Amino acid sequence: MNKNPDWWRGAVIYQVYPRSFFDSNGDGIGDLPGITEKLDYIAGLNVDAIWLSPFFTSPMKDFGYDVADYRDVDPIFGTLTDFDELVSKAHERGLKIMIDQVLSHSSDQHAWFKESRADCTNDKADWYVWADPRPDGTPPNNWLSVFGGSAWAWDSRRKQYYLHNFLTSQPDLNFHNEEVQNQALSDVKFWLDRGVDGFRLDAVNFCFHDLKLRENPASNAIAEGSIGVRKENPYAYQFHKYDKTQPENLAFLQRLRALLDEYPGTTTVGEIGDDNSLQTMADYTRDGNKLHMAYSFDLLTEEHGSEFFHRTVSTIEDKLTDGWPCWAIGNHDVTRVATRWQAKSDQQLKAYMAMLLTLRGSVCLYQGEELGLTEAELKYEDLVDPYGINFWPEYKGRDGCRTPMVWDHQKTNGGFSDAQPWLPVYDEHYSAAVDVQDGQDNSMLAAYRAFLGWRKDQNVLLKGDIEFLDSPKDTLVYTRSLDGERLLIALNLSDNASDIALPTEGTSVSGTPDFVGGQWQGSNLNLEPWGVEIARL
Questions:
Q1: Residues 506/536, Cβ–Cβ less than 8 Å
Q2: CA 262 to mean position of chain CA atoms
Q3: pTM of the predicted model, to two decimals?
Q4: pLDDT value at position 389?
Q5: How many angstroms separate the CA atoms of 162 and 183, rounded?
Q6: How far apart are CA 292 and CA 49, in angstroms?
Q7: Angle between helices 277-285 and 306-320 (to 10 degrees)
Q8: Catalytic residue set
């Protein structure tokens, strides 16, 4: 029995992208034994859990998010035995293991789809979303793929179109078919029985579609924020009313939660990409009977600054009621935060880190963020991401945030692999390698380790309420409160010093990293540029 079944509340989840973490067998691709080899490093960060991006059997058209077998490990990553050892060794170090579950779609190489596309009468004929063409042979409606073009692909065998919200090689499963739901839950159970502690649910609001296949209306405002696409992508031109986020999804999430509840101490975090993502987060996490927590793309865009952070966090807090948020400022799908938010110094990145780690909710931290890694600039010929290849040069894709981790600045390929890596190691990353920062007291890595270590013992930050206070331009001030304890967090998100008049004087908290601290004169707080203060009220 898990001693703390609610461990996920306020937890910090470290995202590992297996292809890029550490290569143990010299083939240029990271693998599960490589992650096991680096568990001491992850545990040393003082995080609570590891989220593993997909390692399932896959043709790797979308690098694992196109699953061909939901119950096996792709040979490039190792074996089921390697996975079991990783889980066991992680648990020995007090680390939970969460895996990326891709529910809404599979690979076109999956046995289910091969059977489904054979004809209209086989046992799997209705396991995917099939539709007849319009009389003129065009697709059934105007739905678009996230990766560009129509969301419908023609299949000559069935003489029908199939739905793919992502790549053509990623057909959408038909969750209106209860057999599909049962199979998905059975696959989740398979991994629960192997000892996983939870799931990051990819594109969790995409499982159901409108059965009437109604046309999506045009979007009133072409915006990238809430749906995780850029403005040069026509996907942003529609309001996605019918192709995802359907009401039937809520009942399925209740079935999923009921299964998780049979395994105390397990959890779910859903990825929400939607036009109204904050409301969807609230709908999917409230009442304690669906997702445990969810995150959206709202902090994963180029927009940033104190007003934006205040508005975004306040909006979700107002909507969530009894739900629970999970915050992320970086992951494997977006430009690294150091580049995206134009950080000019480590101090600026430390201020963003302090914000991320003091908001109410849990946190996903993407590998390399703790090193302050910038987005890698790659040549077109180095790209492997179909998203980037499709939209080049206006959008360079996701490869720039997926380049290998840099472990040793003196070794070939940054110590990631002895072979040529699947993506090149970015030259500018060598100076930020783990071995370089290990010996620097004021490094980003040292700051993350220290702050996360201190945070573990602050129950008010893990589970307390949040309230924003009025503060000058370019500052963010809020309190966290629990059981009579009240902490003030003040952030100066600008290049200029700032004076903040507060209702009462605070007492600086001990044990925080050296970069935390401001100057108090009575109830007036002075913060240096990009300064951070945490005080007890």
A1: yes
A2: 25
A3: 0.96
A4: 87
A5: 20
A6: 15
A7: 40
A8: 202, 262
